[in-house]
Amino acid sequence: MTALVTGASRGIGKAIALQLAKDGFDVAINYASSAAMAEEVASTCAAYGVKALAVQCDVTDGAACAEMVKTVEEQLGGIDVLVNNAGITRDTLLMRMSDQQFDEVYNANLKSVFTLSKLVIPGMMKKRGGRIINISSVAGLYGNAGQTNYAAMKAGVIGFTKALSKEVGARSITVNAVAPGFIETDMTGELSENIKTDALARIVLKRFGQPDEIAKVVSFLASEDAAYITGQTIEVSGGLSL
Ligand code: NDP
Known about the structure:
Helices cover 49% and strands 15% of the residues. It is α/β, with parallel strands linked by helices and 242 residues long.
C-alpha cells in the first residue's frame, strides 16, 4: 500500500509520513522547496523497511501535480492514500488583506485539494478502494480573527470532504478531514507570544499539540479499522474553543 503526503518536509506532514511508513506504507514525501529536509524524511521512512520517495511539486501548479501523481504511481505502484496536508497562512485583518494574500491561501489550501483528489481518484476507482485525508483546521470550524482567508479555505476543505465522500463511497473510497488546533510547528512558531498565551488559556488540556498527535489520527483514518468512517471531520485540538 502506498501513501502520498503533501507538505511532508516539515511539521505535521513530516510526522504523518513517518507514521505511515511505520505502519508499513510505501510513502511519497511531497515538498515545495525544502529538498534536503524531504530527503531526510525519506531516509528515515526507508529505515522502517518501506519504499520512500521525496518528490518536489508546488501543489498550486496543476500540471506539476499531474506529473507528481504519475511519477508516484509509476515508481511506487499506485496511490492508496492521499493526505492533503500542504498549507500556508497569510494572516492579516480583512481590511488589510490583499487579493494576493487571499488567492495564495486559496490556491495552496483549497484548490490543491481539488486538483490532487481529482488526479488520484481514477486509480482508487480502478482498485475499488482508497483513502483521502484532508488536513483542515479549527479555524475552519470556528473562525479566527486575522484569518478570514485561511478559515474560508479550511471550512471549504470540510465541505469538499463531505461532498466527495458521497461521490466515491460506492467504490469503498473514504474521504475524511482532520482539524488540528494549535500544533507546534514552523507555522505556529511565527505567532506572537500574546497570541500563544491567549490560545493556551483556551485549550482545555493546557498545552499545545505535537505533530505526531495529528499523525496518529491520520494513521487511524488510513487503516482498515477506519473502513466505515467517511465524510467526517475529526477535531484534534486538546479541547480548544476559539
Ligand atoms: P509548516 O509550515 O510547518 O509546513 C508546511 C509544509 O507544507 C511544508 O512541508 C511545505 O514545504 C509545504 N508546502 C507549503 N506550500 C506548499 C506548496 N505550494 N506545494 C507543496 N508543498 C507546500 O506547516 P504545518 O505542519 O504547521 O501545517 C501542515 C498543515 O496543517 C497545513 O495545512 C496547516 O494549515 C494545517 N494546520 C496546522 C496547524 C498548526 O497549528 N500547525 C493547525 C491547524 C491546521 P516546504 O518545506 O518545501 O516549504
